[in-house]
């Protein structure tokens, strides 16, 4: 069945399903590009920053983060490291606040995916119902077994095309939406892990600075 025949068989609901498909593919491509960038660079950059900070090279760590400010974890670390002499509690709050600000970026388009997943099967079902209404409206009970009855049967089978199309669109989007949700959850876990490591390093550095100040006053 060609594309034109497919749209004719599915009825008017095939057009919004086509729109959902095009929109879904565009958003999927954007999310794939986003997650590939993060997975390719972020872990290496964050490990380098933590190593620099562990060696007390704070300036080098901040420069490294600024060079990679397009990464979520880099922006989170910068929000804390660029504070002027914060205490450990302020440092932790800065990390947590920026992490919360990054969540919408990591979950971008998730609502669109969920909307398409919910509406596509319903549109397919609507197309089937409309097709059945049209078929039964043309049914002539006095012509059972005749050409009109055969046409009604053919119309019913064609109406099911819309349901199949709606399910295909929903399943395709659902596959990628669940994948992106898994990547988001993994990213949240990494933010907590690396953020905890940076906070621990800062607390140790802060305590060392306090000890030096106390020793100098004695």
UniProtKB/TrEMBL annotation:
Where is it mostly found?
membrane
The text of the family note is: Belongs to the exbB/tolQ family.
Question: What is this protein called in UniProt?
Answer: MotA/TolQ/ExbB proton channel family protein
MotA/TolQ/ExbB proton channel domain segment(s)? 70-192
Subcellular location(s) of the protein: Cell membrane; Membrane
Identify the keywords attached in UniProt to this record, alphabetized: Cell membrane, Membrane, Protein transport, Transmembrane, Transmembrane helix, Transport
Q: How the protein sits in the membrane? A: Multi-pass membrane protein
PANTHER family found in the cross-reference section = BIOPOLYMER TRANSPORT PROTEIN EXBB, PROTEIN TOLQ
InterPro entries cross-referenced by the UniProt entry = ExbB/TolQ_transport (IPR050790), MotA_ExbB_proton_chnl (IPR002898)
Which parts pass through the membrane?
A: 6-29, 116-139, 159-177
């Amino acid at each position: 069945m060609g594309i034109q025949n497919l749209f004719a068989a599915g009825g008017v609901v095939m057009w919004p399903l086509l729109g959902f498909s095009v929109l879904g593919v565009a958003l999927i491509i954007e999310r794939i590009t986003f997650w590939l960038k993060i997975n390719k660079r972020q872990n290496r950059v964050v490990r380098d920053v933590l190593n620099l900070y562990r060696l007390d090279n704070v300036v080098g760590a901040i420069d490294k983060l600024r060079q990679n400010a397009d990464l979520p974890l880099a922006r989170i670390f910068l929000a804390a490291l660029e504070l002027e002499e914060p205490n450990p509690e302020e440092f932790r709050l800065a990390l947590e606040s920026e992490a919360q600000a990054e969540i919408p970026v990591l979950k971008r388009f998730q609502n669109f995916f969920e909307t398409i997943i919910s509406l596509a099967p319903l549109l397919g079902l609507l197309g089937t119902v409309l097709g059945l209404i049209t078929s039964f409206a043309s049914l002539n009970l006095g012509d059972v077994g005749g050409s009109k009855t055969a046409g009604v049967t053919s119309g019913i089978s064609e109406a099911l095309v819309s349901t199949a199309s709606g399910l295909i669109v929903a399943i395709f989007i659902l596959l990628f939406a669940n994948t992106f949700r898994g990547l988001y959850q993994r990213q949240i876990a990494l933010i907590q892990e690396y953020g905890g490591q940076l906070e621990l390093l800062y607390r140790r550095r802060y305590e060392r600075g306090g000890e030096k100040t106390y020793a100098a006053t004695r």
